[in-house]
Write a structure and sequence with these properties.
This protein is an alpha/beta fold. It folds into 2 domains: 5-230 and 314-364, Alpha-Beta Barrel (TIM Barrel), CATH 3.20.20.80; 439-838, Orthogonal Bundle (Cytochrome p450), CATH 1.10.630. The chain contains 28 helices and 25 strands. The strands form 6 sheets. The protein has an 8-stranded parallel beta barrel. A 5-stranded antiparallel sheet has the order 9-8-12-11-10, with helices on one face. A 5-stranded mixed sheet has the order 14-15-21-18-16. A hairpin with a 5-residue loop joins strand 14 and strand 15 (418-420). It starts with a strand and ends with a strand. Its cofactor is heme. One of its GO terms (molecular function) is iron ion binding. It is an enzyme of class 3 (hydrolase).
Length: 839
């Protein structure tokens, strides 16, 4: 990867260089300035540098490149003269090349401020007369490159304010880019004497807009250097102004409206040359100063002097670096100017620290992902993710959502993985058909316990997943589920009968666990687990599923735990009750069910058929591997649907208007003879079920995919953001983040079934495409249609038979509302629960 650039301007009026120990990361130094007028005519015999190149070179680390900066603010005569014709451009370029040869400099930095207008003379020379400079500037740079050759450095300083970027559009930038080695974006002086309200002169917000604009118009990120200001600025504000917020306060008139002359109402100075009359005022500003987290800048408004101060601090430099250099993968930084930071050089130290962090990330992390935005700590290692997942228990989805608000639709959430929040990109990440998508092993480590890791859900490679998935598809097609509907209806009625017989308060979720577990076990193994027939609702398979969820983050983030269980399952006995219970299910209970299915091949259902499948290799038909498949079926077929039913039940009981409208929708339905296909056509029931799936999706955990054979190209809806996600990069989405998107789902925490209906009361199928409760693509939930069959039949039966006699018991929204992620959604109080009493 190319060396990260740190360029420092060094000026004649502040030629102060610190100890070389602070300069080890400096790659380029630009001596400011040589006037452009010197290079227009005949070359001088003695070049007007304020210090010799070799003398300067000796003050910096070996290998530091020394450039001559040409131009600067107020240099508005020489450049237009040089650019006006092919002949003058060639002469100028030839003179620059001779200066480089004579002085021994390593290159030049072109500081034409600004081609096309808005320079120091903009009041005397209208911008309209300078339009020709826009086309001439790239030609001048091209002549310079030709004269200097490929090995001499050629850079340019470019404006930070969009109003000044006349010469830098999508037509000119590609040509400019061909000539330059890098570009110094002046992300400072955003506030100057032309302004009329106060703002940060080097803030993150406007700096980001400048960087994004240049990238959008054609500069590659690695060509851009982000600018930092090693000086402080002040501006006098309107004496009648009493701002509630100092940002945005009115200023006094600061330049002559006729001539553009400075009226002395603003100024700037280096940290080592504070005017005596300003010392007290600056000290007050430093003491009272604040950092604006929104605009990203340090400031102070002095009510006594009516003066606005704006500056960069060491801390704001670190934040600016993190927000922009790391986030956008910029190629370097620069500062104006080195000597102005003396005598302590605190700003330079902060810049060095930031570069050190950057180099650490590059040396330890995946280089291809450094360009993607996200927190520095997340890029440095997995401890950031592990802290939110494992220590805070399932809180990373909330942190990822905050990242998206700060950084945009694509963020880096650990050294290797990206996350997307744009609903339009779902079908690219979770593609289907022949577009191969692998699962990522780091994600699969959450299920790296015993036989679970060899089940279809935990399979990484696309091809192996296909081998395991295809034989299962026929059992879970919609047509097959319609054949199974009679069994689902029978279990629905038996569960409702038992609910109506239950005395005293109980948890409906446990009843739903029994219902769903008996259905999936009957279908998978040929016999139910018998939870509906037992006395009461506990124990049930949900108890063991909790053990899996509670151990998931330990398995994901503690490699020693994974290794121990992989070596011998006996180690699980020493990892707590959750792991012990989980291994008992995997080693004893589920293999027992599978063996019974094999012994009864006529009624063994899914697993008997898999054993007899001639297309499957023998390695795929061992009891060990099938136990992992069985566990995955039981988890997916039990917990997820049961939680959705609990969500529906709570909101129907807590929101009588919702329940009343559902009952209207169910008019004419026979509670003892329900039909899935009929129920699907009832819009409000359809809406209630979809709203429950939004709030209580099957999987709440982020789910990454790897496009192994293709780059994924992302463009935001407004066209402002473009990313190419390299093939082999894990990138995923999170259902609870998408389902809380306020543009798609206003008031996202509320249960509003009506959002799923059109104005005519019919199904809003367009909104349904944004529901990812069952994932999407080639890895879409295998048992999706079974879940829908259960949801329709049981919701209708509950509404018609049970809920008229039910009331909530010691249950609030906090018992069903998403709070944290343990693979599936969990509320604040632990697992989803809905306490009820049946009268």
């Amino acid at each position: 990867m190319p060396q990260f650039r740190q360029m420092l301007y060094l000026t004649a009026w502040n030629n102060y260089v610190p100890d070389i120990t602070l300069l080890s990361r400096v790659t380029h130094v630009a001596l400011a300035f040589v006037s452009s007028e010197v290079l227009v005519g005949e070359p001088p015999t003695d070049w007007p540098l304020f210090e010799g190149i070799e003398s300067i070179r000796a003050k910096f680390a070996p290998g530091t490149k020394i450039l001559v900066a040409i131009g600067g603010w107020g240099d508005d005569k020489g450049f237009p003269e040089a650019a006006k014709s092919r002949e003058t451009r060639k002469r100028f370029a030839s003179n620059v090349a001779k200066m480089i040869q004579d002085t021994g400099a390593d290159g030049v930095d072109i500081d034409w401020e600004y081609p096309g207008g808005n320079g120091d003379d903009y009041k005397q020379v209208p911008n309209s007369t300078k339009k020709w400079e826009i086309g001439a500037f790239p030609k001048l740079l091209s002549e310079l490159r030709a004269a200097l050759g490929p090995d001499t450095i050629l850079s340019a300083a470019v404006p930070g304010l969009q109003r000044d970027m006349m010469a830098f559009d999508s037509q000119t930038i590609p040509e400019i880019n061909r000539s330059l080695d890098f570009v110094n974006v002046m992300t400072y002086d955003f506030m100057n004497r032309r302004g009329t309200i106060t703002k940060h002169h080097a803030g993150i917000l406007e700096s980001r807009e400048a960087i994004k604009t240049y990238m959008k118009r054609g500069f590659p990120a690695d060509r851009l250097n982000l600018g930092f200001a090693f000086y402080v600025k002040w501006f006098n504000t309107d004496p009648d102004e009493r701002p509630l917020n100092a940002i945005g306060a009115k200023t006094v008139l600061m330049e002559d409206p006729e001539t553009g002359a400075d009226l002395g109402q603003s100024g700037a100075f280096a940290w080592n040359s504070v005017p005596a009359e300003m010392e007290d005022a600056l000290q007050r500003a430093m003491i009272r100063g604040s950092y604006d987290a929104i605009g990203g800048g340090s400031f102070s408004w002095d009510a006594q002097d009516k003066r606005w101060w704006t500056w960069e601090t060491p801390e704001s430099i670190r934040k600016k670096f993190d927000n922009l250099v790391l986030s956008y993968g910029l190629g370097g930084v620069f500062a104006w100017a080195l000597g102005e930071d003396g005598p302590f050089f605190d700003h330079l130290r902060a810049l060095n620290d930031s570069i050190e962090v950057y180099e650490s990330i590059v040396s330890h992390g995946p280089h291809g992902k450094i360009a993607f935005p996200g927190p520095t700590l997340a890029a440095m290692g997995y401890f950031y993710e592990g802290y939110y997942d494992f220590i805070l228990v399932g809180q990373y989805s909330h942190e990822i959502k905050r990242m998206h608000k700060k950084y945009g639709p694509i963020v880096r959430i650990n050294p290797d993985e990206l996350h997307c929040s744009d609903p339009r990109f779902v079908d690219e990440i979770y593609a289907s058909g022949n577009r191969k998508r692998d699962k990522w092993q780091h994600s699969l480590n959450t299920g790296a316990t015993g036989a679970i890791r060899v089940g279809g859900f935990s399979t990484g490679p696309h091809e192996l997943h296909r081998i395991r998935r295809v034989p299962m598809n026929k059992f879970f097609s919609r047509g097959q589920m319609l054949k199974l509907e009679g069994e689902v209806h029978e279990y629905t009625q038996r569960t409702c009968d038992k609910l109506l017989r239950t005395k005293g308060p109980f948890d409906l979720k446990e009843a739903f666990n029994c219902f769903t577990a008996d259905i999936i076990s009957q279908y998978a193994f040929g016999e139910p687990m018998g939870f509906i027939d037992q006395e009461g609702w506990e124990p049930n398979f949900g108890s063991w599923v909790k053990s899996f969820f509670n151990s998931a983050y330990m398995m994901r983030h503690v490699g020693l735990a994974r290794a121990a269980v992989a070596i011998t399952p006996l180690f699980a006995n020493y990892m707590g009750d959750d792991m012990k219970n989980l291994m008992y299910q995997l080693q004893v209970v589920i293999p027992g069910h599978i063996q019974k299915a094999l012994d009864n091949k006529d009624n063994g259902r899914i697993f008997a058929d898999l054993i007899e499948n001639k297309q499957l290799p023998d390695s795929e038909k061992t009891i060990y591997r099938l136990s992992g498949e069985g566990f995955n079926l039981l988890v997916a077929g039990t917990e997820t649907t049961a939680a959705s039913l609990a969500c529906i039940s709570y909101y129907l009981l807590a929101q009588p208007a919702t329940y009343a409208r559902l009952m209207d929708s169910l008019q004419g339905a026979d509670p003892l003879n329900l039909k899935w296909t009929d129920l699907e056509q009832r819009p409000y029931l359809w809406a209630v079920i979809h709203e429950a799936l939004r709030l209580m999706p099957g999987i709440s955990h982020r789910s990454a995919r790897i496009a192994r054979e293709e780059d994924l190209v992302y463009t935001s809806e407004d066209g402002e953001t473009h990313w190419v996600i390299p093939k082999g990069t894990p990138i995923g989405m999170t259902s609870v983040i998408q389902h809380s998107n306020e543009e798609l789902f206003p008031s996202p925490k509320e249960f509003i079934a009506e959002r799923w209906l059109l104005e005519n009361g019919r199904h809003n199928y367009a909104l349904e495409k944004h529901l990812i409760s069952f994932s999407r693509g080639s890895r879409i939930c295998l048992a999706k249609d079974l879940a829908y069959c259960e949801l329709y039949l049981f919701t209708a039966a509950m509404a018609l038979r049970v809920l008229p006699r039910a009331q909530l018991y010691e249950t609030t929204v906090e018992d069903v509302e998403y709070d944290h992620d343990l693979i599936v959604p969990h509320p604040k109080r632990g697992s989803v629960r809905v306490g009820v009493i049946i009268s």
